[in-house]
Amino acid sequence: MKIGRQPRRDSGDAESQPLPLSPGAVTFAAAALTLTAPAMPDHATTLRAYRRAASGTAELAGSSPTTTVSVIELGPLTSGVTYEFWPVGRNSQGEGPQSNHVTHVAT
Q1: Range of the domain at 67
Q2: Is 20 exposed, middle or buried (0-12, 13-18, 19+ CB in 10 A)?
Q3: pLDDT of the chain along its 107 residues, tens only?
Q4: Residue 79 class from Cβ within 10 Å (0-12 exposed, 13-18 middle, 19+ buried)?
Q5: Could you say which DSSP state residue 58 is in?
Q6: Domain-embedded: residue 53
Q7: Which of 28, 35, 37, 68 could be joined to 23 by an S-S link, Cβ 3.0–4.6 Å?
């Protein structure tokens, strides 16, 4: 049976959304403490920023539905500490690959 011009699918037969692609080469704005991707990654609904202090563990720093995401949205940086930042695209299926990583010494 067809609905309009599309074949009818049984429940659960729809293809799942693929994971997002990489955000590409991102830039870091030290004054605003934001990462900016050239475009939203294919299949992504949000951009998530992660950060890691030198010899620390990675933590979620912020999330945005746009191509710019804050690295201090979920908490401030510690002055004098060197951080590594990177974004990933995210959708309902999970996170895609990381982009390039950038480093910054918090002031």
Answers
A1: 18-105
A2: buried
A3: 555 666 666 666 667 889 999 999 999 999 999 999 999 999 999 999 999 998 899 999 999 999 999 999 999 999 999 999 999 999 999 999 999 999 999 99
A4: exposed
A5: -
A6: yes
A7: 37
